[in-house]
Write a sequence for this structure.
């Protein structure tokens, strides 16, 4: 796995690059915004299931 991080010099330019494929619903163009070895990791939300959602909503 590649753990090298490249700092973002201009976040606005990154968002502008991603805006066109998102608006065009073009998944191939959107995927080209990422390095081939990109791994996206999101934390697991502590609330899962319908009951947890009901508890969270009140």
């Amino acid at each position: 796995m590649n753990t090298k991080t490249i700092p973002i010099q201009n976040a606005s330019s990154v968002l502008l690059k991603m805006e066109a494929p998102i608006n065009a619903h073009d998944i191939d163009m959107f995927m080209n915004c990422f390095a081939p070895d990109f791994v996206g990791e999101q934390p697991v939300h502590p609330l899962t299931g319908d009951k947890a959602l009901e508890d969270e909503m009140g």
The CA atoms of residues 18 and 34 lie 10 Å apart. The chain has a mean pLDDT of 76. DSSP finds three helices and no strands in the chain. Helices lie at 11-23, 27-31, 49-57.
